Each structure stands twice: as C-alpha cells, then as structure tokens.
Amino acid sequence: MRTRVAAALPAVVAVALVVACGGNGDDSDTGATGSASPSSATSSSAPATTSGAAGSGTPATGGDDSTDAPPFPANTEPDTGQASADSFVTVTDIRTGRHDGFDRVVFDVAGTGTPGWDVRFVPEARSQGSGNTVPVEGDAILQVTLSGVGYPTETGIDEVDGSAPIPGQGTEVVTEVVWDTTFEGTSVAFVGATERTPFRVYLLESPTRVVLDVVHPR
C-alpha cells in the first residue's frame, strides 16, 4: 500500500515567484504549479471534457498538471493519503480528461484544510451506509474514498450534483465516474475502468483538488 500525507506542494511558492517576477501571458494557467506536465507523462493537446449532471464541462487539464506528481507504480495496490487535522471540506465538482498515456479524474473540493484519500480496486461497488450495489460501467472498479469531509449543511458549501454518472468521453481506460454519497466524514465515488492498470493519486492546492491518474492499457 502506498501512503502519503496530504500537504501543501512546495512548488507552488517557486512558480508563484517566477510568474510574479518575469512571467508572461503564456503562463496564465491556474493551479499549484501552472502548466507544467507530470514527470511521468505529458498532457494531450485535445483532452476530453466532462459531461452529465455531475460534471462542470471543464477539462481536467492545464492547471491540474504538476511536476510534483508521483511516478506511476508498477502495480495496482491501494493508494492512501492522510487528511490534515483541520480538514472539513465538500466535493464541489468532478472532472475527467485524457492525457498521453493515462486518463485523469479530478475531485475539486472547497472548505478548510486538505482531504485524505483511500483509492483501491474493488470487486464490486457497494454504497457506503446502505451496502446496496451501485451500477458502474466497466470491467474494473476503483473506489475513491475522500476523508476529512463534512456534510454540505455543515460546511455551507454546495456539493457536486451526483444524480447521474459522468461519462469518460474521449478517455481510454476510464469509462465513467459514479458519485455515491457523503456519510460520517467521508465521500465516496466509483471510477469505472476497462481493466485494472496502475494508478497514482496526489493532492494539488490553490484551489484544492485530489487528482487520480489511471494508466492506459498496453
């Protein structure tokens, strides 16, 4: 199992100083580290956008790239990260996109602190709380559990509309994202995939989001 502590990325400060001192209009991407690509893959020039009730239609590209992204593992073991002690957030949006060599799912959050995560392949999707089966398209299912989460009525922040699955349009391995629910401090979503492949999970800030990258099948 891979475990990391959710913390602010040091590259944020460095990039912010460079942009402030001598950046030009071509470096206007938002996010923790501007438009830098992940160390293990470069982003596609024509990524897919989200659609459906829960998606905003904003591509999971540009400011979601980071030079501090961890390398892809050689296996499909669970990936976990700890929430900050003051984490009290709400998931506000879910976005998908296709990049060179992998598909990306971004969970945008708002609130206090930074969330933790537990992402792993599961044999079937079961709703937290009720235990009912959740239909998910694909031959493999990644369960994404975000911790340090509060109910929208407690955080005062509108939660993502999960009334319909978010299709992975243009993606190669991700089929769709199905929102489950928020329950007792955690929010759960299921990511359908065509097969089990290696994946990585990491945190970006300003704004805060949890990024899931899933390697394309070979």
From TrEMBL:
Residues 30-64 have a biased composition (Low complexity). Keywords: Signal. Residues 24-85 are annotated as: Disordered. Transmembrane segments: none annotated. It comes from the Bacteria. InterPro entries: AMIN-like. Residues 1-20 form the signal peptide. This is AMIN-like domain-containing protein. It comes from Blastococcus tunisiensis.
